[in-house]
Amino acid sequence: MPDILLPDTVNAKSVLDVVHLQLGAHTIKMFYQTSFEVTNGVRMAAKLAMRHEGVQIPDWREVLASVQTQMPFRERTHHGYRRSNELSNITKWDIKWNGSLVVLVFDELTCKLHYSDALRLHTILRRASQNAKAWAGDESKTMRMTAYLNDAEENYKHGYAT
User: Fold this and answer.
1) How big is the CA angle at 63 (ends 53 and 104), to the nearest 5 degrees?
2) Torsion angles phi and psi, residue 113, rounded to 5
3) Measuring CA to CA, how many Å separate 73 from each of 24, 48, 69, 94?
4) Measured between alpha carbons, how far apart are the two ends of the chain, in Å?
């Protein structure tokens, strides 16, 4: 696997209630609940990488709107909650940043993306997670918060919620 993944080697799609994340030749399968958490981690790491490069952080509504036309949203197909028989193939994951790169760690697999490609991954993964959640019939509304706090005098406190 190359040191840094190219944009055309990264993709995500929903298969029933599981999200398949394609990273080069590897396919990561995770439940939509986990993929929402991974999405938040990718978004936060991309923001930190952009801040490291001195790039202005974009308006997230514009970023999300650019992908909405590319990947259609699946309407909820039925009432109630359902689960497929497909299982996740990861037990642990972590999202980090290193300079202008976003580092994805799934079990023993480590991949690096440029922050611009990580923004694209964030939007595609978020939409795939929403589609998987719609297939499952999950109507719950949850708030996920991620924050990166360090020395408050040197770094800004920042966080986000989805």
Assistant:
1) 55
2) -135, 150
3) 25, 29, 9, 27
4) 32
| C-beta separation of 40 from 100 below 8 A | no
Which pLDDT belongs to residue 80? 56
Instruction: Indicate whether this model's pTM tops 0.90.
Output: no
Q: Which residues of the chain are under the pLDDT cut of 70?
A: 1-3, 58-83, 143-162
The angle, 0 to 180 degrees and rounded to 10, between the axes of the packed helices 115-136 and 32-53 is 160
Nearest to 84 by CA among 4, 162, 18: 18
Sort 21 into a burial class: Cβ within 10 Å, 0-12 / 13-18 / 19+. Answer: buried
In this prediction, residue 76 carries a pLDDT of 55
CB 16 within 8 A of CB 135: yes
Cα separation, 13 vs 1, whole angstroms: 21
Contact yes or no for 146/41 (Cβ under 8 A): yes
